[in-house]
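For reproducibility, we list the full input for the iron/sulfur cluster complex.
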Amino acid sequence: MSYEAKFRVWRGDDGDGELVDYAVEVNEGEVVLDIIHRLQQTQAPDLAVRWNCKAGKCGSCSAEINGMPRLLCMTRMSTFTEDETITVTPVRTFPVIRDLVTDVSFNYEKARQIPAFDPGDVAPGDIRMQQVDVQRSQEFRKCIECFLCNNVCHVIRDHDENKPEFAGPRFLMRIAELEMHPADVADRRNIAQSDHGLGYCNITKCCTEVCPEHIKITDNALIPMKERVVGKKYDPIVWLGSKLGIV
Ligand code: SF4
Ligand code: F3S
Ligand code: FES
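The corresponding predicted structure, in tokenized form, follows.
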């Protein structure tokens, strides 16, 4: 059964823009990205939207739907009532290029700043990993880099001034993954705190709430990482060892 949905879509560039109203046909089983594509085909051929897989796996189609950070391709139209106005806006934390497309280069800059996996002198095949360690990495590796978590985190969402010091939950999770990896010999506690702003996170868990891969970012990455940092700072033996340069 088809119906006409009321859509309100943000149109503009980094200088200026406005919400524009459209009425667009919706068919059974469709997702919001289908409607945005129909809008492009029928009424707004110059509407800019980024997407790739339409399967929730490339992380390209991040936007805000009725103010909630979501993937356009994974949000079913059946989530909304037929008389509801559906407002689609670009993610707020990153600068708009045009319409629904934002400049997410902040995230790639942060990714480049994280030192790579460091196996030390251990040769491949020389280490046996416990299943629990494998599973931890696997959870974090489900990340599709949609950056919805970085988009929603209040530390940078309305505070551009924090961006130089705060990598955001996606990359603090990456640091935690490496820090907790039994074969990685680098000590990542200092860089987490001093270079990537772990201390700014006050565990609001908004990142976990919006993650389309349902990764427990806060409970399984950020809190354990905070515990490790605090352990290093306040454990007297660790403190003495670090002063003597042996831990
Ligand atoms: Fe997206 Fe989740 Fe990865 Fe964040 S952790 S970038 S919300 S998939
Ligand atoms: Fe931000 Fe997530 Fe911490 S939303 S404050 S990084 S728990
Ligand atoms: Fe790939 Fe939506 S188009 S995640």
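The beta strands are 3-12, 17-26, 62-65, 68-71, 85-89, 96-98, 101-102. The CA atoms of residues 165 and 238 lie 26 Å apart. Both points were considered when choosing residues for closer inspection.
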